Amino acid sequence: MSLFEAIFGRKKKSAEAARDRLKIMLAHERVNTLPYIDDLKRDLIEVVKKYAEVNDIKIKTEKNQDIDFLEVEILLNPPKS
Amino acid sequence: MGTIITVTSGKGGVGKSTTTANVAVGLAQAGKRVVAVDFDIGLRNLDMILGLENRIVYDSIDVMEGRCNLSQALISDKRDKNLYFLPASQTKDKSALQKEKVRELLETLKKDFDYIVIDSPAGIESGFENSIFLADEALIIATPDVSSVRDADRVIGIIDAKSEKAKEGKEVKKRVVINRIKPEMVESGEMMSVDDVLNILAIPLIGVIPEDKKIISATNLGEPIIYDKNSLAGEAYRRLSRRILGEDLEFLELKAKKGFLGIIKGLFS
Description:
CATH topology of chain B: Rossmann fold
Order of helices and strands of chain B: EHEHHHEEHEHEHHEHHEHHH
Largest interface: A-B, 23 and 24 residues
Number of helices of chain A: 3
Number of helices of chain B: 13
CATH superfamily of chain B: P-loop containing nucleotide triphosphate hydrolases
Number of strands of chain A: 2
Strand order of the largest sheet of chain A: 1-2
CATH class of chain B: Alpha Beta
Order of helices and strands of chain A: HHHEE
Helix content of chain A: 40-55%
Low-confidence stretches of chain A: none
Low-confidence stretches of chain B: none
Oligomer: heterodimer
Distance between the termini of chain B: 55 Å
Radius of gyration of chain B: 19 Å
Strand content of chain B: 15-25%
Largest sheet of chain A: 2 strands, antiparallel
Mean pLDDT of chain A: 78
CATH architecture of chain B: 3-Layer(aba) Sandwich
Shape of chain A: elongated
Number of strands of chain B: 8
Largest sheet of chain B: 8 strands, mixed
Number of domains of chain B: 1
């Protein structure tokens, strides 16, 4: 923060707001851009079901510079005791 | 064989046709044989930006439907012997394009020209698909506002899904042009900067075009701004064109002209 800002105070600038809103929005939208995501999800459930009780599978994709992430979260049913 | 460059954006009104016109002129000025092709069927505009609207007799749909030869539809630009223009039909709509006919047309153009610069229509429907499926390179135009950046991101995400090159395992070279940057607004924190946009879109930058009032008068006259040696936007388009040809050039340093308050602020920072 510059001395000017220290003296006169600082509000969140609109460009910053634009940046933050876009990042959040695009993180959600990019999830749906993979054409095979539904098939992948179905196959994964099939495979995991052989070994464990599946509750739900969440798949997230994310692009960050040159790296593409595919994040798979598998929620298992609690073991029956 | 020529290179197909598709100029696209998703959102309308961000400067696709202006960029297509200026890049086409820029490449022609560098001695390349260039054809600018308008794919915005039904809403053509590239003709007026290039100042060639009075010379249209036939259009690309006439060629594809066999009503004339390609050479009858191609308009040569008298200002530059290397530059040609293929207009879109104004009476048909986007459904008039058939993929196989488009392929035939573009394959023919690739034999005759070094660069085929395609002005794609706004949106992500069939018109966009027809303009991108044979592209070697894509220029994605974005202005630094939330709607444009969001739509650009969406377009970047679907280019590969529509591209034949990507299906063959090759890559469509995708690069972003950031248009209408207002340095004084960026400096005061009221407009996203070039870096902000690049960070979000995560593809390489090929051009930064400042907001320039001269673009409006250039469009009024039908003389692409790149012909204006004194304009900043013209210089930015010249550099963009040379980067397409592989030159590694610095980006223009865009700084706000400082007013009185700016000078005072500068003293404190």
